[in-house]
From TrEMBL:
The keyword Nucleus does not apply. InterPro entries: NAD(P)-bd_dom_sf (IPR036291), SDR_fam (IPR002347). It comes from the Eukaryota. Keywords: NADP, Oxidoreductase. The lineage of its organism: Eukaryota, Fungi, Dikarya, Basidiomycota, Agaricomycotina. One of its GO terms (molecular function) is oxidoreductase activity. Pfam families: adh_short. The keyword Oxidoreductase applies. This is Ketoreductase (KR) domain-containing protein. Belongs to the short-chain dehydrogenases/reductases (SDR) family.
Length: 355
């Protein structure tokens, strides 16, 4: 229930409105739902992208924007049938290569590693990794490990891809980025969160804020990654962002699990007031492609963006703590070692990447 009070509070701060499409309807007719960010997306031909969470919501709309500008995109998703249906509804530019499916199930870090290796076996470059997965709300029955894996598996996936991202960054004219969709919802998290050990990862925070905890770790991960890249003079930019309030299938599904009257009211409000996915994806698109980001790496490296591409700062002081980011990173590595997941050439056990 608290979540819906928060939703109501978020609506009052909400972004522009309306006509929320579902993922499968998104393909047609939304080219006009753009702004200056969309019209300024550079030509992306020859560049390779992975979008996690790409089969619906913000991730799907991100894929759509990228293929319209000629990007070669891998839709990383766990449900192949759903992803292939979503791909069928995309509208690529004429001549654009097909959108590829990459099987990625983030519920297990070993699967995340496997997906990264599968990608590496197919492609010789990766220009942008855009991460837009929605994690489930925790329940006492299902899922203490959801919060853990919502951070750990994306960590493994990203770090397993890092060698290829770094190779790509060596090419002349390259512009390599890692984009993490987070949320201003972290403002509702209590202060004093720690990531010292497994118990801290599993802290449910009364069960209400676990998804926000995952978004929170996305911001800390972004900061820690950028620090490591900068230390080694690797010209890759990591950015985190708040997409704004976006009417996606994920949001509507969350609302549907509530009692009918509440569900009905919130569905109407969200459909009427929240941004459609194609608009909601614009901050991700800005982070992934805007030339100004590459032109000013000192400003944008490790930054947190607000819609549609403004520099902001995470609305929770803990999420701005580099010390906490280091704690998260160190504990993540330790937990991975404990469960026997190695990331060759990546972070785990690799002193080169340690700051
Ligand atoms: N919508 C908003 O208003 C809003 C606001 C702030 C932040 N955000 C953030 O934006 C991101 C995207 O949210 P959204 O609203 O677009 O969500 P969405 O419509 O539910 O899409 C989420 C995607 O994540 C995928 N996913 C979930 N669990 C997965 C797993 N274990 N392995 C692989 N993929 C998995 C889903 O795949 P399946 O289809 O297979 O489930 C789906 O493609 C999230 O990080 C969310 O926190 C959203």
């Amino acid at each position: 229930m608290t979540a819906y009070i928060l939703l109501a509070r978020e609506v009052t701060h909400g972004s522009s409105a309306g006509n929320c499409p579902t993922a499968t309807r998104l393909g047609a007719g939304h080219g006009s739902m753009t702004g200056s960010v969309a019209s300024e997306i550079p030509d992306l031909r020859g560049r390779v992208f992975i979008v996690t969470g790409g089969s619906s919501g913000i991730g799907y709309a991100t894929v759509q924007h990228l293929v319209r500008r000629g990007g070669r995109v891998y839709m990383a998703a766990r449900n192949e049938e759903k992803a292939r249906t979503a791909i069928d509804h995309l509208e690529p530019e004429p001549g654009v290569e097909e959108v590829c499916f990459l099987k990625l199930d983030l519920s297990d870090p070993r699967e995340a590693r496997k997906a990264a290796l599968e990608f590496i076996s197919k492609e010789r470059r990766l220009d942008v990794l855009s991460r837009a997965v929605r994690t489930r709300r925790l329940t006492k029955d299902t899922g203490k490990l959801d919060a853990l894996y919502s951070h750990i598996s994306p960590f493994v996936f990203t770090m397993s891809l890092l060698p290829l991202l770094e190779e790509t960054a060596k090419h002349s004219q390259s512009d390599v980025r890692v984009v993490n969709v987070s949320s201003d919802g972290i403002m509702f998290l209590k202060r004093g969160i720690r990531f010292r050990n497994l118990d801290d990862f599993n802290d449910e925070h009364n069960g209400e804020f676990a998804p926000d905890l995952a978004r929170y770790s996305n911001i800390l991960f972004t900061m820690a990654l950028q620090k490591r890249l900068d230390t080694r003079n690797v010209p890759i930019l990591a950015l985190a962002l708040n997409p704004g309030l976006v009417c996606t299938d994920g949001v509507l599904n969350d609302v549907r699990s509530q009692p009918p009257i509440i569900s009905h009211i919130f569905t109407m409000v969200i459909r009427a007031l929240w941004a459609a996915p194609s608009r909601g994806a614009l901050t991700s698109i800005f982070a992934a492609t805007a030339p100004v980001v590459r032109d000013q790496p000192q400003l944008y490296g490790g930054a947190y963006l607000q819609p549609p591409g403004k520099l902001g700062r995470p609305p929770n002081a803990d999420a701005r703590s580099l010390e906490l980011a280091e704690e998260l990173w160190d504990t993540t590595e330790r937990l991975l070692r404990d469960i026997g997941v190695e990331i060759e050439g990546g972070i785990a056990g690799d002193p080169v990447l340690r700051a």
